[in-house]
Amino acid sequence: MMRPRIQPDCTSRPTGATVSVRSWPRAAAIWWLPVLVALWCVTAIGVGQSEWQVDVLIPDTISVRMPTQEVAFGITHADYPPASFPARYGATLPEGGVLRVEVFSKAGGGWSLLLEIPDLIATAGRGLIPADQVLYRVNEGLWTRGSPLPQVIFTSVGATDDWLALTIEFQLELVGNESPGSFAVTTRLTALSDEQGP
What is the mean predicted confidence (pLDDT) over 167-182? Predict the structure, then answer.
């Protein structure tokens, strides 16, 4: 009995035949190349990011400023002696006899301005003029006699939006028994919140 022979398939590809492989168009590959490089850089290097809080502290404060603290009364022979005593003379320094004061406050509650006027001492050392013979008024209000002790001359509550402008005028009252000579006085103005106290 004869067995059938299995003939191998000797069919072969022609010599020199090639297998084609499909590839992306060149333009697409060029477009994607930078994107791939960027992704690689992000993956390789990583992204660093941090956050922090910024705190701002505006102090609860009161500040006062003025161009000068010196007050002078230029009395001349033309107006001294006066027709009668007591007689009052306006300050000649600061200019116009008006002390211009500015106050800035961030106080949450009430605050005050305190004025101290010491006795006027003669520059030559002979005698003095008591502080209560110096009179002042704030913002064209009532005239008040000075004192070496702190006197509240202005009060307010809360913060100011900007520098608050005030004016203080001075007068000197002469009663006739003052010694001749030159007298000078340096005033003191203090701003205090209610919590600080005088």
Answer: 90
